[in-house]
Amino acid sequence: MKFNTRLLTLGVVLTFSSSAIANETAESLFDTKCSICHSKSRPSDMSKVLAPALMGIMRHIKMSYPKKDDAVKFMVDYVLEPSKEKAICMPQKIEKFGLMPSQKENVSKDELTQISSWMFDNFPSTNFRGMGHGNNKVIR
Ligand code: HEC
Fold this sequence. Notes:
Layout: H1 2-33, H2 54-64, H3 68-80, H4 91-97, H5 109-122
Helix pairs in contact: 1-5, 3-5
This protein binds heme C (HEC).
Heme C is lined by residues 33-34, 36-38, 50-52, 57, 75, 78-79, 82, 87-89, 93-94, 97-101, 103, 107, 115.
């Protein structure tokens, strides 16, 4: 009886820590493969930004794909085969930054699934309400 309870506790601990590890791995994958262009925080100097920040991207993705499964599927496909027709981000963004280059050579489908799932779970943070607070200067 006692043994069983311990085993159960161990199971719970293991399950919990393995999901924490998965989360960390996904974030470090993002850091090496995506953060060169996509910032995890609000960029302080817009003139140096190469691509929309993560919070903005995820806000738009969740408007088009509120379900996690659909959102992850969309992101995996888009990152490997980006196109203007598929893009959910605002047309001004593509005009400003250009279309995202395919990351086929840079990331595997499996890694992308992990990264996309982590992006969906962590962005945008709950207090995010748009980049410019209605100020269009950001989009030039
Ligand atoms: C070389 C720069 C660069 C890298 C590296 C990069 N991106 Fe992007 N990404 C962009 C640009 C520019 C856009 C905006 C234009 C567009 O949507 O195509 C974008 C847009 C996106 C979008 C929104 C797509 C849409 O519907 O418009 C997603 C999702 C995304 N990136 C995910 C990723 C992930 C995940 C990685 C890492 C595996 C990554 N990006 C790496 C430049 C980059």
